[in-house]
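Homework help thread (please don't just give me the answer)

Our assignment gives two proteins as sequence + structure token strings and asks us to describe the second one. The first is just a warm-up. Here they are:
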Amino acid sequence: METKKTPASNNEKLLKRWSQWLEKWHSCIDVTTAESRQKLSEQMKQVNPKYTLREWFLVPAYQAAEKGDYTIIKELQEVMTKPYDEQSKETEAKYYAKKPSQFFDIAGISHVSCSS
């Protein structure tokens, strides 16, 4: 007869797996010095883009393009072709920002992913 797993035992197993992963991760990194933290930060920036395409960037771009103004489309194309790079302060202020609060209750305006 097969025994059923209780939610508590599942939680314990999951916690154990996460703890093991975290210990392994800690053994792979050295964050004891400012230099090692800087190196880790640089490595992370090479695989995690700073700029990602978001729906709330696209809607105004589409609306302007419908009127023949492709300025925003071209700007987004420029930013998104170099998503890992540091860019101008102006670009950072526009495209490295949290979602405006007026979009929080609108479905589909958060983030465009590869599965979108």
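The one we have to describe:
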Amino acid sequence: MKYTRITALAALGVAAGLTLTACGADNSGKPSSSSKGSSSSSSSRGDAKPQGSSDATSGSQADNAEPAATKDTRAGGAVSSGTQAGGKVTFCKTKDLAVDAVDAAPDETTGRINITMVNRGSTTCSATGFAGVDIKDADHTSNPIERGPAQPRVTTLKPGDAAIFDLAYTIDKTGESLSSPTDILVTPPNETHTVSLKWPAGAGDIKGAYTDVQVYPTHTTR
């Protein structure tokens, strides 16, 4: 009986040892191939964006971008503001215009300076709109001239044609005018380059200040 009991206990001990060994294998982890697979899966989830997703985003941005021609047009203003109907006539360039100023007062109280621009270029151009005008005074100040209450007229110039616009003011006959104009600075419509003209000799004195002078839009001489 004692031998049998010892044998039984030994058998139970062997069985328990086998059980513990089995449990130890399960708790120690999976085979090495499973470990690599788990690490790879974790790395994939850690990517910020799949490569395909990044390409799709770039493509969407490209689709939403404006065409280069549209940007160039807006930047240069050639089509949006410098072309007349039909898209064929561009604004006249200062370098292609011969500009002159003369006294054209119709009477002793109304001052008027006519400024003429002749197209010396080889192509038809547009001089439609208001020219920019500043008057320089003997004290070396430059005074911008306000626009008069008039609507621009279409002014298209073939080579040799002339456009005209005028400066209007009231003549001071008291001899006490505070203005002493020496030069007229003219920037043709839709241009940035300026020409300097002498104030016409014999033109009447300006009554008031330079803010009382007005510039009117261009028109053709025909």
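TA reply:
I won't write it for you, but here's a hint about the kind of observation we're looking for: The CA atoms of residues 183 and 198 lie 4 Å apart.
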